[in-house]
Every structure is written in C-alpha cells, then in structure tokens.
Amino acid sequence: MEQLDLPLIWAGLICFAIFAYVVLDGFDLGVGILSPVLEPGHERDQAINSIAPFWDGNETWLVMGGGGLLAVFPLAYAIILPATYPLMIAMLLGLVFRGAAFEFRWRDPRHQPLWDLIINIGSTVAALAQGITIGAILQGIKVENNAYAGGWLDWLSPFSILTGVAVVIGYALLGATWLIRKTEGGCQRHAHRLAYWLAAATVAAIIAVSLATPFLHNDYWRRWFEMPQVLLTAQVPLLVAICTGVLFWSLNKGRELLPFVMALALFLLGFIGLCISIYPNMIPPSISLWEAAAPRDSQLFLLVGAVFIIPVILGYTGWAYWVFRGKVGTEGYH
C-alpha cells in the first residue's frame, strides 16, 4: 500500500466519474437542448420518453465526482468552488428545475408547453455552466496563500464562453445521435438531419478550443508541442480526425448505434486533451494533485469504500440500460 500513488489513483477515479457523467447525462441534456426544434406532440414525446428512465440516475456520477473532490482533494474543492460559485448555482438550479419539469410534464398536460420550455432552459443552462467551468479552470485560477484570490466574475472570458458554447453544441450532438438510436419514424429522421449540422458544429468547436488552449499558458504549449511528448499528443488530433470521418460515414450509411459511439469518442478525446493540458496540476497553473490531496490515511479509507461503491453504481446503471434497451414510442419503451 505504501507504494500506491493515491492522489494519482483518486484523480483517475474522479476523472472516470466526471466522464461517466458526461457520457450518461450529456445525451439527456442534449435531448432537452434540442426539444424546441422537435415537433410538439409525437416527436417531442418520443424524445422525452427516450430519456425518462435514465436522467435522474445519470446524475449519480456528478454527485460522486463532486463528493470525491471534496473528500480527497479538499484544497482544490475550497478554491474551485468560490472561483465558480455563480456557475455552480446556475448549473444546480438548471438541473433542479429541469428535474421538476420532467415530473410535472405528464401530470399536468394542460401546461405541457411550459414544462417543455423549462426542460429546455434547464438543460441549456446546466450544459453552458459546465462548459464555462471547464474554460474557467483551463484559463487558470488566481490563488494566494492556498485560497481563492480572484473576483466574483473572474471565470467570465471569451475563452470560457467558447468552451461553454462548445459543450452545449456537443451535448446537442449526443442528444441527436441518441435519438437516432432510440427512436423511430419522424423523430428519428429529424434527429438524423440535425446530427449532420451538429457534428460539423461540434468539430468546429473542438478545433477552436484546441487552437486557443495552448496560448493560455506556456505550460500548455510545452505539454502539447515540445519533443518528445508531441509524438504522443499528436495522436489526439489524429484520432479526432478519424472519429469525425467515421461519424459522417455512419450518418451517410444510416447507421443507428455508430454515430452515438463516435460522438462519445469525440468527447473522450476532448477529455483526454483537457487532462494533457493541465496534468500534473489540479488547479492551473500552480497547485498539483499532490499538494491538493487530503492526508494519505483519509485517501486510503475512502478508496476502500470506492472499491465497493463504484461496481454497485456500474451494476445498476448497466441493468437499467439493459432493461430499456429497445426503441421508444410516445407511450414508452417497447
């Protein structure tokens, strides 16, 4: 046990939880973002029904990622949260109102357009807040004496707005490709048309963020372009190009599952790019994983619990997706 690099292990587990949240909650936020362009009635009902069994369980991973950050990297939590308070408040309010609207949508059909609007606004606000938070962390957080030393709106910049819009577009692509897989008829055809435009917009957003990121800090430039690590980092844009080609090919061929898988692959590559940029820092540009970590005994104690909890979460998540593995209609899964 003494040889284990616990901060690195925990960083990997928290990254896994965050990416699991992006994978699982990204598509249902995307469906909410797309809801206004879906025809009211049959199309919109199909789309909402396709995520109804999953949306609340998907957010388990967000709780695990945030809770893990608090417990294992308390210094990072104590700095990141004050630096992004408005964003966290906006995200949580968006998720809360969106969740309430899901419940009321079927129980109060007379006001269904209102609940659909709240689902759309809540989904868009939550996605935008998550993306801006990524940009705020990437551009760096002002720290003095191990405490946040910036202002209330330091997170707001052209770069953070760019990353926020990129995440909204990416989630919308996940939502469209999810609907291709899970719906049929007019809703599927509409989602297929949307996926073309959203795929192009997502790739453009990836390129824009990738071009801007190395200019934020010299460390980012060095990690991406200095030899010999450039031989490894160059594989990321290469894989992005390959996944983009496969994504458009699968849309042209009318495939149902492959577009969703390729959209997820683009998110995974973006997440890997984020990790390459900031590693080994927990808070760019000054606080590393090891400096932000809790005492070793606390990390070890929590790791034992995680070894039991994570398989349970994976198990019931997998079971839910297996039970609802078919297509969905206006009345539910069949």
Descriptive report:
This protein is mostly helical. Helices cover 75% and strands 4% of the residues. The chain has 15 helices and six strands. β1 (143-144) and β2 form a beta hairpin. α8 (158-182) packs antiparallel against α9, α8 (158-182) packs antiparallel against α13 (258-278) and α9 runs antiparallel to α12 (235-252). The radius of gyration is 20 Å and the shape is globular.
Radius of gyration: 20 Å
Write down the domain tally.
1
Number of helices: 15
Order of helices and strands: HHHHHHHEEHHHHHHEEHHEE
Distance between the termini: 49 Å
- How do the strands of the widest beta sheet line up side by side? 1-2
Strand fraction band?
under 5%
Largest sheet: 2 strands, antiparallel
Given the helix and strand composition, which structural class is it? mainly alpha
Q: State the total count of DSSP E strands.
A: 6
Instruction: Note poorly predicted spans.
Output: none
Give the helix proportion (percent range): over 70%
Mean pLDDT: 85
Shape: globular
Which keywords apply here?
single chain; 334 residues; mainly alpha; two-stranded antiparallel ribbon; two-stranded antiparallel sheet; 15 helices; 6 strands
